[in-house]
Every structure is written in C-alpha cells, then in structure tokens.
Backbone:
C-alpha cells in the first residue's frame, strides 16, 4: 500500500476508522518512534564505550556505575518497547491495528495518538488494571 499523507494530517473521527490514510499515519509515527529509540541506543553504546576510564575516587566511581545502571535499565525498557512497536506494525500489515484485543472494538484515535502501541481500549485497559490490582493484593 502506497498512501501519501500531508505533513499536517491528523486522523479524525469524521473519516472511516483505520482507513489507508490513518494506517499510514500510524505506521509512520511508529517507525519514527522506533528510529528515535534506536538512535538513542546507539548513543548509549557510544557513551558506554567512551566512559571506560576508571574513576580514581570511589564516590565518583559509584556515581558513574549508578548512572550506567540507570541508563541500561532505560535501554532495556526501550528494547521491550521496540518489540511492542514491531507488533503494532505487524497489526497494521494484518489490518488488525486499532482494534481492541479483548473486545474487538475500535480503540479511540486519541488513545492511539497518545499510545500508538495500545492493544486494548481504555475501558478494557482499566478492567485489566483492576484485575491485576485485585490479584496483586491477594
């Protein structure tokens, strides 16, 4: 599918849900997000390779190690996010993107705009979180 969309295009509830323009809009949004994460990861690798100099002071060394641990945790979360982005891109290819995994209903465009990897509608997500809280509290 080769659909051109204007730079200022925003999906609207006035058009058919997940028409080719909306699919292309979200595909581009997801690809941009994925590329930003990969660029950040490349920068992290470069930074970690540069910072191999041992700090003579133990407090400075501890601070550097703490910063590295935080950076690596952030990168791990982003690695998991890339998996979700790839799954969303596959759903676009399969024509399933934008529909709730639990109910099959369309996910609100505002929700997809804010969280393009969303697989549940807001109502289904809230139910899911309530169930998680109940089982977590047990």
Residues:
């Amino acid at each position: 599918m080769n659909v051109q969309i204007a730079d200022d295009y925003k999906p609207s509830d006035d058009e058919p849900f997940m028409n080719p323009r909306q699919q292309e809009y979200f595909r581009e949004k997801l690809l941009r997000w994925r590329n930003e994460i990969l660029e950040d990861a490349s920068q992290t690798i470069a930074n970690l390779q540069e910072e191999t100099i041992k700090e003579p002071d133990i407090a400075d060394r501890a601070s550097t190690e703490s910063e590295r641990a935080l950076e690596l945790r952030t990168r791990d979360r982003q690695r998991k996010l890339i998996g979700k982005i790839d799954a969303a891109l596959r759903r676009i290819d399969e024509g399933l993107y934008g529909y709730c995994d639990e109910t099959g209903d369309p996910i609100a465009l505002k929700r997809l705009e804010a969280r393009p990897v969303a697989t549940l509608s807001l109502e289904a997500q809230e139910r899911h979180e309530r169930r998680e809280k109940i089982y977590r509290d047990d």
Remarks:
- The radius of gyration is 20 Å.
- The chain has a mean pLDDT of 91.
- Helices lie at 20-50, 58-94, 109-114, 122-137.
- The longest helix spans residues 58-94.
